[in-house]
Structures are given as structure tokens and as C-alpha cells.
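Hi Q.,

Before the meeting this afternoon, I wanted you to have the adenosine-5'-triphosphate prediction in hand. No need to reply - just skim if you have a minute. The sequence and ligand are here:
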Amino acid sequence: MSMLRLEGVTVRFGERAALDAVDLEVAEHEIVCVLGPSGSGKSTLLRVVAGLHGADAGRVFLAGEDQTGVATHRRGVGLMFQDHQLFPQRDVAGNVAFGLRMRGTGRAEAGRRVARLLDLVGLPDAQRRPVGALSGGEQQRVALARALAPEPRLLMLDEPLGQLDRSLRERLVVELRELFGRLGTTVLAVTHDQSEAFALADRVVVMRDGRIAQAGTPLEVWQRPASEFVARFLGFDNVVAATVRGDAADTVWGTLPVPAGTAQGECRLLVRPAGVRLVPVAEGLACEVTARTFRGDHVVVRLRPADGPGIEAACPLGGAPEAGDRVGAAFVADEVVALP
Ligand SMILES: Nc1ncnc2c1ncn2[C@@H]1O[C@H](COP(=O)(O)OP(=O)(O)OP(=O)(O)O)[C@@H](O)[C@H]1O
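Predicted structure with the ligand bound:
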């Protein structure tokens, strides 16, 4: 059974629909990350599930029960929002135990649970520390422990790692995934950071203007973006108009190979940067290198062909050309995707 189900949920602010007939299911123990540009409706989705905002149409079900008219504190969901405001006058234990004490959990039992949660989030024995003396990452862990304490059936995270620097975020995301797996927590998280979403989620949902543009496993969405919007949102900019005939496509960049079985006719074609090989000028599409960007384990080279949009190529670290060089571009069918 699904833990969460949305059926045709619409939320309007005046004329504008922040959510437009959204259908979504989250299975028990599943981690779903909602991604999308600013204003696409991600926070509104969380708010409507939490009961902080009513739906103008449609229904929200938790464990099969219609939540219409059910107050937030009776929904059994945990929330950790962007401004994860801890109570500054309480110590760490006081913050983590807050929801437990509200629910009448006894002092001794609350103490045991707090200790276990602090172990889980990697802050053992931090009970008596004042929250003001914690780093941003530590505060975020305390906020997470606080949200987990009442053992919510659904944990909702809004930009959970938003304030943190990149390396801490990357580490925490791995820890979170492990932690949720161990606890069997069902998670609905919102982020605008795609690498975070892809690292955390079993399934990602990409939103656009209050609708779901695509939902699928990280691999599915990465390999087969459902539209040019999703492709560009993921940072793929090599998109060009094409006409597919057989196993090739005519484009302004010349004739590109496409995978067998590609739908025939006119389409927009995505070429992932890994599918652009640099060859001698005479052997490919002649281009000028306009920029190169170091990306850790590879270099991204920006190419300007005589005609059509610019092209990004991912190159190995050694031997990437310099800005101003002239190179040829050749294309690899496996990395070419016809966008529906
Ligand atoms: N209280 C409100 N009153 C009026 N309009 C609102 C309100 N809350 C949200 N909106 C509008 O609804 C749309 C969706 O907002 P929402 O906050 O859900 O987007 P988001 O994807 O979470 O954006 P961000 O990534 O910037 O947080 C936006 O156009 C926003 O301006």
C-alpha cells in the first residue's frame, strides 16, 4: 500500500494554480525527492500534505485515509523545514525531546529516545550542549533528530541541507540515505539541488508550474528526460532541432547517429556531453573552443560550431583543448536522446 497518495490536488492562489491536479504516490519506506525551479509548487506540495494548507480540489491520503479536515498534528507526519528553527533557549536534548514531551512521553523514555536519536544522527552525548554553540551542520542534525523523534509515518523535508556548504551536504546526504534505510522511514523531500535529489532519492519528481513534468528513478530521469524542460533543468544544454530517419538524425550540427528504435520524424534531440568526442577538425563538425571548466574528474569544454547552438563536451582531464583551439566534434549514438 502507498503511504501517501495525492489525487488531483489543486491549490490556487488567486488565478494561479500553485498545484494543478497533481497525482502522486509514495510507497512505504520509499524516499521521494521533489525537484523543480523556484515557484514550481514544491513547498506548496509539502504544505498541503502536512495540512498547513487546504486543497481547492482533490484529496490527500495517508496510509489510505483521506486527510480532508484532519489537523496537521493529527496526521502523524514529521516536518523539517528550510529555516529549521531550533529553540535557542533549550539545549540539544530539550529540542529533540520537544515533540515527545508534547505527546506526553515520560521523561525517562524520552531521555532514552533522545540518546538513541543523537547516536543515529552522529551527535552522541550532545544532550546538554546549547544549540547556539553548534555548527550549521550540527544544528541541522539536531533538527533532523527532532523531526524523527515522534517516529512520523511520513517525514517531510524542505531543502533539508539548504544552508550547508557543498562538502558537508554531500556527506550528510549519504548519511541520511543510510539512516532512512535503517529506520525504514518514508520520506518526501523537496530540494532545488539536483545532485542532492539524485543522491538521496529512490524516485525523483520534477515539477514545472504546479504540475509533474516527470517522475522516475534517478537513473530513468537522467537517462531519459521526458522533455526539453526536464533535460535543461538537469543542466543538459546540448539540445537541437532534428529530423530522425532510420538510425540517423539531420540537424544543424550535421547528421548525428541515434540509438536503434528512436521514434522517426521531427523532434528535439539531446546529446549528453559524454556523447561528444573531440576529433581532428577535418574528421568532425568544425568548432572553436570557447571555454573549458574543470569539474573534478573531467573537464567540460564549450564548443562553438559555425551554425546552431553551442555544444558542451565532457573530456578526460588529460589532453582537453584550450579556449581558442579549433577541434572537430563527433557524436556517440548511445548518448543521444530524442526528447518526446
Ligand atoms: N501564500 C501565498 N500567497 C500567494 N501565492 C503563493 C503563496 N505561496 C506560494 N505562492 C505561489 O505559488 C507558487 C508556488 O510556490 P511554492 O512556494 O510552492 O514554490 P517552490 O517550488 O517551493 O519555490 P521555491 O523553490 O522558490 O521555494 C509560486 O508562484 C508562489 O508565488
